[in-house]
Amino acid sequence: MKQLFIPFLLLCFGLGNSALVFAATEPSVTANTASASCPKLLQHTMLRLQDEKPQALCQYAGQVVLVVNTASFCGFTSQYKGLEALYAKYKDRGLVVLGFPSNDFSQEPESNAKIADFCDNTFGVKFPMFTKTSVRGTDAVPLFKQLTEQTGTAPKWNFYKYLISRDGKTVKSYGSMTGPQDKGFVSEVEKLLAAKDYR
Known about the structure:
Number of helices: 4
Structural class: alpha+beta
CATH class: Alpha Beta
CATH architecture: 3-Layer(aba) Sandwich
Shape: globular
Distance between the termini: 22 Å
Helix content: 10-25%
CATH superfamily: Glutaredoxin
Largest sheet: 4 strands, mixed
CATH topology: Glutaredoxin
């Protein structure tokens, strides 16, 4: 599966309350793709970044899923490299990283096509990426609303992370300062990967 990517540079350090929040202008699509073996969190259809074709998230049922809201012009944008390395290392064991570009913190002004091009050419991102998405507040897409409800926390900045167990019942959130190679974070990824497929 080919997916897409995103940019880097600049600063995005106002971690939290001082940041201005804007709704993304390009909506994603949701659908009732309910299945007995698909966790409720994954019962959505989103548009793929590179070609804007609908993709059912239920295809990732039974895997450990890492959901990340991304941005091209942020001090944390270099985490793309770490996310891709994490995906490459663990994908054969059942990890998938899902990237959702967002302009909610005013650091993703580019079009979907430019985001895809930047990710590909700058970081060689291969993990699944989706079109620009609103991830917090009333305009947040259902997936992020569910993640917020389940963890009690909405993304506080770009590169906020939600780690979802194979059965979709356990979700842990990690702030932007927790990088993809953080020892505690990687340990939790490995712990969830060690759990057998629930299906």
